[in-house]
Specification:
about 200 residues, alpha+beta, Jelly Rolls, six-stranded antiparallel sheet, four-stranded antiparallel sheet
Length: about 200
């Protein structure tokens, strides 16, 4: 009759069964996800944390490179508040500068790439002091700047894993070992050094 409707009993039961199965599958999936999360937390000791630590900015003077190739001191970084018992999984150094300037009338750049442990490399050590270790490599002709020109700065991330040196809280010193420019002078302004640390922490 007009305005009336009916539900076939068999079809209703079939639809309810499908809905019930769907809900059961969702519940099983949620349980599996909860178990997976518990496993990950247990395996990684409560989770992996990434933290950045930065030095003070070089105060009142640029880091200036000449053609002779001299070692330049860079600002130290304090790493702190990593929990007791945390395991350092990876750490890398970072070199930040607000601006780069070429004081020569000719095009200037780095002169020579990194010779590991020997020259044209930023190194790090514990302030106790410990031995120097390579942290950031450079390539020949890096940071090319036209004559008597200034350009905006950048952040250079080291590709060297340094947890054997940066293993936890402490003060870490940096130097640019035998840094050499093609011409006098290649200058880096408002320099900061940084350390990025990945560590695992215990549950709770």
């Amino acid at each position: 009759m007009p305005g009336e409707f009916y539900i076939e009993d068999k079809k209703l039961k079939s639809d309810l069964t499908e809905i019930k199965n769907t809900v059961t599958n969702i519940q099983n999936n949620v349980t599996q996800i909860q178990n997976d999360v518990t496993t990950i937390v247990t395996s990684f000791g409560g989770g992996v944390v990434c933290a950045d630590f930065w030095s003070e900015t070089v105060d009142g003077a640029e880091v200036e490179l000449d053609a002779a190739g001299e070692t330049r001191e860079l600002p130290p970084v304090v790493v702190e508040k990593i929990p007791v018992g945390a395991a350092t999984l990876r750490s890398v150094a970072m070199f930040k500068f607000r601006m780069i300037g070429n004081k020569s009338a000719d095009t200037n750049r780095l002169n020579g790439g990194t010779d590991p442990g020997m020259s044209q490399v930023i190194q790090v050590r514990e302030s106790t002091p410990g031995p120097w270790g390579d942290a950031i490599n450079f390539v020949d002709s890096q940071y090319e700047v036209e004559g008597e020109t200034r350009e905006g700065g950048d952040v250079c991330f080291g590709s060297i894993d340094i947890p054997s040196i940066v293993s936890g809280n402490g003060i870490y010193e940096f130097q640019w070992l035998l840094a050499r420019a093609l011409e006098d002078y290649l200058s880096f302004y408002d320099v900061q050094m940084g350390i990025r640390v990945w560590y695992s922490r215990s549950p709770g």
